[in-house]
């Protein structure tokens, strides 16, 4: 299995972002945000803020006592006839799933939309063993058909228009599809129905694991989750260890937050609760609990709050950066603000150190986050890790930037040099100056002027202020004479 | 008589001295005595937010030394610099240290210009007149960071002849973001252009941008687009048509 080890170049990726992808992304996120705002307003702003606080506390509590709740999950799932597997990393998780599949001669799998499955690169591993895995969420189905990756964590195909989807269906399914969402959905449904019936195994992720009863909670809007986890004889759920919550009451709070934040609905169409093996359901239930770096993140006092995430995607929808570049620019499974935190936390700042800088720290994400993750705070923490290093990683910042910062600190840190700099700026800018502006500057400052002119250095305020003070004093003096 | 220490910010001093002069004239007109702590340079935010926290802390120590032995409120024409001193300084130093104590004391004194006018001086109408259609951009650190929304609006509503008009995505970031603008210039440009497009679509004759960084960004964008719409700091609007 080849792991992705290339450094993520956000700048290069953002330059290559397709305008069509960006336009479709903006269209979709705008709709999602509008719907979200409407249901939150209906819920009541004050009540919503209280609910966010409750959600934050529940998730914090669960993370703080993760060991206890995970043990509880294992005990309850086992008692309910299920099997619990522990995977320390992506490779182990893949091996567990592949082992379960090959032992049972599985040839065909139906899958419920799962980000963890993307994180561990499960589909290519299955394909490599000749096992066909069908994504059954409409968005995932489209993306899989197109040979792409999801560009958004809750709306995988939000970067595509209905016309593009219709063209894709015509090409790949050999049908005559019109760009009408209802018809496209029907085509996908017809295509998938036999796969649900033929599948030897269903694979899902999980939105939450309710510790008190060992119950896996999956929310979907299309019913595909329920079919995939009940028709095939074996159900394997791969779930990140941070998904554990204490009890059903916690689930009630988090479901309210999740549905409203994802899609602006009061409740998702299907909330499926699965506790071990049940009558009429699959004969086997396997729960794979995945660490893959999460316990290391947990040890980081600042960054651990990134693990509170309930994968609603609101931070991406509202992020002005995400909306200009689309999901692919983040070069990873998780995109937008949550990706800018999780990717460097999972892969290291050596590979993904550019992502925490892919933010203006505008704070729009933190304002919407249903579990109140202090996103800008964590991004600053990761910028520091990239530049200065910390107990988790050594620095990866290029030496030239370090030297520039040192020089900048020396100049700005001494009034003499600071004022000298201002005066020199005024002298050196003379040949470049056009009126009040400097339309173009030499590298690296052309990174500013490629977008807009730089204002000419002016200065002179201190002198003006001093003269004015002196004049006022003089006038006061005369008045007293 | 109220006395304030001017926190002129490095961007204000070097790029927007006219805004600073107008701020002093306005404050004096309202009977405020202005002092200028000479040793101030930069508050350290550009370093700290770029990950150079050690340099940021050294700059913070310098800044604190410049302001510590002064009296009265510390007033700046920038929500971003104020927010940095107010929220970040106290969290930058070890709990219970002398530096932290000093940071907390200074954090309690620092205010953005509109906050000082509306909440301390209790003034909203200072006799300005600006008979134009004006859109208001909400800078991120001022609005979300400091929670200043109503103060600039109250001041704008009191300006004679000023017609406040809404514009799309007025609370969305303009793409400045400090170091962001040069690390990812293409994305910054796209965000700025979206902002300019929305301003132009509103039909405003001027747009209020009360944050030096955002002002330089949006003003430059409007110039580049050959637009006649003026990007102005709130201070520049309040100085219009008054007796200064």
List the helices and strands and how they pair.
The complex is a heterodimer of chains A (481) and B (244).
Chain A: H1 10-15, H2 19-43, H3 45-64, H4 66-79, E1 83-87, H5 90-103, E2 108-111, H6 115-119, H7 122-128, E3 132-135, H8 138-145, H9 162-173, H10 181-198, E4 201-204, E5 208-210, E6 215-220, H11 224-228, E7 234-240, E8 244-245, H12 248-263, E9 270-274, E10 284-290, H13 294-298, H14 314-318, H15 322-325, H16 336-347, H17 349-352, H18 364-368, H19 375-388, H20 399-412, H21 415-428, E11 437-438, H22 446-449, E12 454-455, H23 461-480
Parallel strand pairs in A: 1-10, 2-3, 2-4, 4-7, 5-8, 7-10
Antiparallel strand pairs in A: 5-6, 6-9, 11-12
Helix pairs in contact in A: 2-12, 3-12, 9-10, 16-19
Chain B: E1 3-6, H1 10-15, H2 17-29, E2 33-35, H3 45-48, H4 53-68, E3 73-76, H5 79-92, H6 98-107, E4 110-112, H7 113-120, E5 133-136, H8 140-145, H9 150-157, E6 163-165, H10 180-183, H11 185-202, E7 206-208, H12 212-224, E8 230-232, H13 234-238
Parallel strand pairs in B: 1-2, 1-3, 3-4, 5-6, 5-7, 7-8
Instruction: Determine the structural class of chain A based on helices, strands and strand pairing.
Output: alpha/beta
The percentage of residues in β strands of chain B lies in 5-15%
Rg over CA atoms of chain A: 27 Å
**Mean of the pLDDT scores of chain A?**
95
- Runs of chain A in which pLDDT lies below 50 for 5 or more consecutive residues are none
| Total count of domains of chain B | 2
Radius of gyration of chain B: 18 Å
Structural domain tally of chain A: 2
Seen as an oligomer or otherwise, the chain set is heterodimer
Uncertain segments of chain B of ≥5 residues (pLDDT<50)?
A: none
Biggest interface, and residues per chain? A-B, 58 and 66 residues
Q: Beta fraction of the residues of chain A?
A: 5-15%
